[in-house]
Design a protein that fits this description.
With 341 residues, the chain is α/β, with parallel strands linked by helices. It has two domains: 8-58 and 161-335, Rossmann fold (3-Layer(aba) Sandwich); 71-154, Rossmann fold (3-Layer(aba) Sandwich), CATH 3.40.50. The chain contains 15 helices and ten strands. It has helices at 8-19, 31-36, 59-69, 71-74, 86-98, 112-120, 133-136, 138-150, 161-180, 196-208, 224-231, 257-263, 272-286, 292-307, 329-335; strands spanning 27-29, 45-49, 78-82, 101-107, 124-128, 153-154, 185-191, 213-219, 266-270, 317-322. It has a six-stranded mixed sheet with strand order 1-2-10-7-8-9, sandwiched between helices. α6 links the parallel β4 and β5 (124-128). It is globular. The termini are far apart. The relative contact order is 0.16.
């Protein structure tokens, strides 16, 4: 695989594409979390909630930029991709906007809401047995089979320069929002799975606030990036497991790794119980119904406070990414049936 270096200039170019389709996702101050985290004085907590997008997650950013950048390759043909669910709806939305046929491969256990959203935008879906995929490789084989039989162009949900740059536009929005208020940024908490979200955001945050600490967040049972940081090379998990269905990649993408390695020195691994408590906190104190993958970055900030790694009296704001809201009602109610924070 040829690795193309993605730069902040690529992110700025992607911003033109994204702005032609989407309004800016707001950066919301959380007065409640400032109290929960024990912040004093002028220090602030901000939520970047990608649940406001038309697909309920950040994935639409990278998908739109990928679709725009591959128009010549696609031509009058189709697009195929595998996805745990959020990129499925993101690339389907992009296909609707650009008038392209989209065929998606999704795990059989994906939340119903993710199937419904993806179909809403006109995509065709095939499923695979995720329980045995680490043995059979059915996900990749089925996606490649569709691409071969239909002459479709295959899109990666995270390991692609166009996707990274598109996702980075959300980071530009964060930087612009904080700078417009003359704010400083101390810490940025963001999910890592395949790395497309974090790689794009890291480029933008490091450019706008080079002094900020960029903290990666993973589930304990899907900690391939934390292992990669420790080994200083990409590590692959045999079978990632967690309630965070959107964070179960086997490894970080080859295009993402150089960016992550450069800008991130710390990755927190969070238990599913901590994630569930963060979900409940967001619901009870903000009225936000999030999926587990969406709430895990807040769990990391709470973890840092409990461990003394986040000094509540120091200088600089923190930003917490809420990456998605797409959870089925029954599952959500079960997950938040835990003790409140």
């Amino acid at each position: 695989m040829d690795i193309k270096t993605v730069t902040i200039d690529d992110v700025r170019k992607a911003s033109v594409v994204i702005r032609s389709h989407l309004d800016t996702v707001p950066l919301i101050r959380s007065y409640t979390l400032e109290r929960v985290l024990g912040f004093k004085g002028e220090r602030r907590v901000w939520l970047k909630d990608y649940g406001w997008t038309p697909v309920g997650s950040f994935k639409v950013y990278g998908a739109l930029n990928w679709m725009a950048g591959n128009q010549e390759r696609i031509g009058h043909g189709a697009v195929t991709a595998h996805s745990s669910g959020n990129f499925a709806s993101g690339i389907s939305y992009a296909g609707m906007r650009y008038g392209k046929r989209v065929m998606i491969v999704m795990p059989d256990t994906a939340p119903k809401i993710k199937f419904e959203l993806t179909r809403t935008f006109g995509a065709e879906i095939q499923t695979y047995d995720i329980a045995n995929d680490h043995i059979t490789g059915q996900r990749d084989a089925l996606t490649e089979k569709i691409a071969k039989e239909t002459q479709a162009i295959q899109a990666s949900p995270y390991d692609d320069p166009w996707v990274i740059a598109g996702n980075g536009v959300g980071g530009l929005e964060i930087v612009d929002a904080l700078k417009s208020q003359q704010r400083k940024l101390a810490k940025f908490y963001c999910q890592v799975s395949g790395g497309g979200l974090m790689a794009g955001h890291a480029l933008s945050i490091a450019d706008g606030f080079p002094e900020a600490e960029i903290v990666g967040v993973e589930p304990e049972g899907a900690n391939d990036f934390a292992l990669s940081l420790k080994a200083d090379q990409r590590e692959r998990l045999a079978k990632p497991t967690s309630i965070c269905d959107g964070l179960l990649s086997y490894d970080v993408g080859a295009h993402n790794w150089p960016i992550l390695r450069k800008h991130i020195t710390r990755c927190l691994t969070i238990s599913d119980l901590e994630t569930r408590k963060a979900m409940k906190c967001l619901y009870e104190r903000h009225g936000l119904k999030t999926e587990p993958s969406g709430a895990i970055a807040l769990a990391a900030a709470m973890h840092d406070i409990a461990g003394g790694a986040l000094d509540s009296a120091s200088d600089g704001d923190i930003v917490i990414v809420i990456s998605g809201r797409n959870a089925d009602e029954a599952s959500f109610r079960q997950w938040i049936d835990v003790e409140s924070v």
